[in-house]
Amino acid sequence: MSAGAVVAAPGAIASDTVEVRRLSPAETAAYLDATPEAVVVDVRTPAEVAASGRLAGALVLDVNAPDFEARAQAALDVDRPMVLYCRSGARAGQAAQRLARLGFSRLFNAGGFDALAAVGLATEPPSHD
Question: Is 86 a known active-site residue?
């Protein structure tokens, strides 16, 4: 292992010195209840969000958009905790790694929308435009 390397805990992703914890749906619900200052970020595409809905109050920042980093820096406070989700958790993990490189340090991967909705987190309906 190289000098300065960080070993991540099981279920976590290390990006330099930032640990991104993967939360189960139940852990996410408990964390959001206990942490009202947390920002919930949906990193799916606008089309996915329109088709399925989103968690109530979630900010939509498409991780695949070319301006993801710029939009994140403009919309998010680096000092607030971020709870990220997508369809399965893969893109949320990618988004967390990219945000960590921008200086965000309180990052949580909440996995997928359907599982979060299934544990009773409030949702906003699809838009069906």
Answer: yes
